[in-house]
Amino acid sequence: MILVDLTIVIVATPTIIDKLDASVNQVVWVSSAYMLAYAVPVLITGRLGDRYGSKYLYLAGLTVFTLASLWCGLSTSIEMLIVARVVQGLGASMITPQTMAIITRIFPAAERGKAMAVWGATAGVAMVVGPILGGVLTGWLGWEWIFFVNIPVGIVGFVLAVRRVPKLPTNEHRFDWLGVALSGVGLFLLAFGIQEGHDKHWAGWIITMIVGGLAVLCVFVGWQAVNRKEPLVPLGLFKDRNFSVSNVAITTMGFIAASFGFPLMLYAQAVRGYNPTQAALLLFPMAIMSILLAKFVGGLTDRVHPRLIVGFGFAMSAIGMLLMTRWLEPGTSVWWLCAFQVLVGIGNAFIWAPTAATATRNLPMHQAGAGAGVYNATRQVGSVVGSAAIAVLMSSRIAHFLPGAAVQGEAGANKIPDPHVADLFSNAMQQSLLLPTLVYLVGLVAVLFYERPKHTGYGGAPAATVAAPVEG
């Protein structure tokens, strides 16, 4: 549910632009606000789960998330919606690290791959199901229902968690509140500066925000290195090469998931004249391939070198995205677009689950929450930067190909009537999609540095890590 909400707004973007009288940049903030509020606290909420119990943090987060979803659906202005999404993101940040930490604790290392593969596959499927569900709900019931749908799911999830989620031993932790402040300020300054840069014509204060954000993040890393008590991000985790590589890989996937849908959905609705449901169905082949291959890839995760599995995934997705970028034109057959989505879906299926499993396989039990927090935070950092970057690129490309055109008018829910303008708008979206294509290649280079995991499934020494006892 919380991962679906990362991307569910994408298809509803043109409708929200019209109904709430918003700009493209404002609607992108509906996603960015959620991602930023999700990313900043997720480092500390993993530790809170270690200290007070993963089950209880999960239930609290689910309550906040579900109530915030109701608020989102009742919003009557774009500003109110953005604020509600911030609260929703805070709830999400309380939930996600607990799910990953529980899996890490109750499965021994040699068997953790299959369990984490389910977790990773769920994440991958959710990222592509989000736009499809958003399109169906927006087309049939209205944009508000992309948030209202969370309420029954949240209630059912709460009841099931109370009954079925185990209570695990807790650990004493000291909380690095200075680290929380530094990471939060740094991420906000960086994301806000990048996203608002084009709209504010890269004014001096915008550049200052971006540079300041990078400087604060550097100070944050330095503080983590010298903090001898208990840093927010234990840098020792990164001594495990596979944990480090997995964090780079999942950062790129967060970037891509938050960025590629905006140009594609605007193209589908503004150029081809699709309604939200029809536009969302362009992503259906990607979702289907992710679902069909989830079990197969999960079986490979404990037996095949992650460099081979994830490397294949990034290569296949990059090829599919590049072909889609090349053929994103007004007259392109929808079957070609679906074929390219199949390639991207095959690749994604080989990325999400193995990356999650490889990242956490060798984590010590007392750092399960911290490791899960770092992993999810890096993914969210990628999402925040990806959302901000694609907003800048789309705005600049539209301004380049359609100088003087009102963004709202060119990217609204109605089809562009002028064929020449539609062609120019397609060119703008084509060039915007080059960004996630290049990021796929960055991920490909990163995963080539995976090493063979040290556990019995790969023929190595038996893992010393065993499941923690479950109470209750």
What can you see in these coordinates?
- By secondary structure, the chain is mostly helical.
- The chain has one domain (4-165, 232-458): MFS general substrate transporter like domains (Growth Hormone, Chain: A, Up-down Bundle), CATH 1.20.1250.20.
- It has 21 helices and no strands.
- The radius of gyration is 21 Å and the shape is globular.
List the defining traits of the structure above.
Growth Hormone, Chain: A, mainly alpha, 472 residues, disordered C terminus
Distance between the termini: 27 Å
Number of strands: 0
Tell me the name of the CATH homologous superfamily: MFS general substrate transporter like domains
Query: Architecture, according to CATH?
Result: Up-down Bundle
Overall outline? globular
CATH fold field value? Growth Hormone, Chain: A
Main sheet overview: none
Strand residue percentage: under 5%
Q: Helix/strand-derived class?
A: mainly alpha
Radius of gyration: 21 Å
For this structure, what is the CATH class? Mainly Alpha
Q: Total domains, how many?
A: 1
Counting DSSP H or I runs of 4 or more residues, the number of helices is 21
Low-confidence regions: 406-413, 456-472
What is the string of helix and strand elements? HHHHHHHHHHHHHHHHHHHHH
Quick structural overview:
The protein is mainly alpha-helical.
Topology:
Blueprint: H1 4-7, H2 9-19, H3 24-39, H4 42-52, H5 54-74, H6 78-106, H7 109-140, H8 145-148, H9 150-164, H10 177-197, H11 204-226, H12 241-259, H13 261-271, H14 276-280, H15 284-301, H16 306-326, H17 334-349, H18 352-360, H19 368-401, H20 407-410, H21 419-447
